Amino acid sequence: MQKDGLLYANWFIHSEERLKAFNQVRKGTKKIIKSIRDGSFPRDLHGSALEEVMDVIASQQEIFKGAKHAFMWKPKMRIPDIYENKTNQLAFADMLDEILHTNNEMKMLMAVETLDQKKIKGLGPAVANILYFLEPTIFCPFNTKIVEGFNYLTHSKIKLGKWSEYFKLRDGIIELNQAAGLFSKDLGAFSGFLFDIGKLNYLIKETESLDLSSYSHTQAKVDMQIETQDLKSLHYKIQYLLADIGNHIGYRAWIAANDHGRLYQGRRLGDLSLPALPKTMADLPAELKETVSLIDVIWFAKDGTPVASFEVEKSTSIMSGMNRMDDLYQINSDGMMLYIVAPNKREKEVLIQFNRPHYMYNHDLHDHIRYILFDDLIKQAEAIKTFGRDFSILAFISHFADGKLVEQNM
């Protein structure tokens, strides 16, 4: 169901005005950097070069309407802490300067992560609205309705306020944008679409296909249908095999709670699964416990320690599955392995996600995450059951990112 006046449908209409705004923000950002470094940056947003930039951004389409609010000085809370703290100002300026003067995407992302490490109070992902106007193919806008739209569309749980959550959103937008093959390289276009969803201007029903053809300025069409029964059956087959292997080699398998009633070859998946998560999971916060319960397959040791988890990603977001396992990994980061299990044709998508900065530069986590291709698992399942003694048996069918995708971009 769709309504008139959709944001994405009008995204490219006023192209000359938009190009003018991009130029104004770029020039204004240079003024911000200069004023911070020469000591003339004021102790309030009012009258600053930052205010000039935010006025330009807020004057654009509805998606940027409230972008200025995050930078307004709130004296009682002392946020954002760039008006009284010179060190924080300089860190902000250094990040903006790096974005302006490098053409390397990875260096841009690392510049933002460096800023995030400063933990500057009140200086969160709202800054991405500036970065979008500096590099619209690398950074997406960020606000409440975009996040709500993304969560509604992908069943994710992205939150506001943290750069780590922004990177999850950005990665998801890029992945969806590539899958659609329809939207512009300008990440604001897809963000506009998510904004429409977040405002319920475009309602997605579980029982109908999502027809995006009315959004396309090139009249291209994309089919984002509910998965076919064949794909669902394949998902259940992989879950079945993983649980069966785990139970045979000495572990106790868990299958996602919402799949216990599913059938594979007439057998209920829940019959291969623990009926409930082990008592070791009982003290987890409710939200984390729910997240863990929805992981496709987990292998638990006899003492209830999670030792391996698996997300089966046949057609849905690889990123969301990795995020769920990432949460579980924090519980047993010493001895746990994480596996994405995906169709052979999705191997490139998996590698792209494995080479995100969060995984590539977190060496401990990087060493604990691998992927398995459907064909390899199906062909070797019986041999693994016969010869396996623990999860190390998966080494000969699993793969890890070797950094090639990152090196090609550096």
Please give a handful of descriptors for the protein shown:
410 residues; alpha+beta; two-stranded antiparallel sheet; 16 helices; 45% helix; disordered C terminus
Q: Provide the gyration radius in Å.
A: 23 Å
Total helix count? Answer: 16
What low-confidence regions span 5 or more consecutive residues with pLDDT below 50? 204-229, 403-410
Please state the structural category: alpha+beta
Strand content: 5-15%
Distance between the termini: 43 Å
Written as H for each helix and E for each strand, in order along the chain, the element string is HHHHHHHHEEHEEEHEEHEHHHEHEH
Q: What is the 3D form?
A: elongated
Round the mean pLDDT to the nearest integer and report it. Answer: 81
Using DSSP, what is the number of strands?
10
Regarding quaternary structure, what we see is: single chain
Placed side by side, the strands forming the largest sheet appear as 3-6-7-8-9-10
- How helical, in percent, are the residues? 40-55%
Please give the largest β-sheet. Answer: 6 strands, mixed
Description:
This protein is of the alpha+beta class and 410 residues long. It has 16 helices and ten strands. It has helices spanning 15-37, 49-58, 86-101, 105-117, 128-134, 144-154, 163-180, 187-198, 229-248, 286-293, 318-329, 347-354, 357-360, 363-366, 374-387, 404-409; strands spanning 210-211, 223-224, 252-255, 263-264, 267-268, 297-300, 306-312, 337-342, 369-373, 398-399. Strands 3-6-7-8-9-10 form a six-stranded mixed beta sheet, sandwiched between helices. It has a two-stranded antiparallel sheet with strand order 1-2. The chain has a two-stranded antiparallel ribbon with strand order 4-5. A hairpin with a 2-residue loop joins strand 4 and strand 5 (267-268). The protein is elongated, with a radius of gyration of 23 Å.
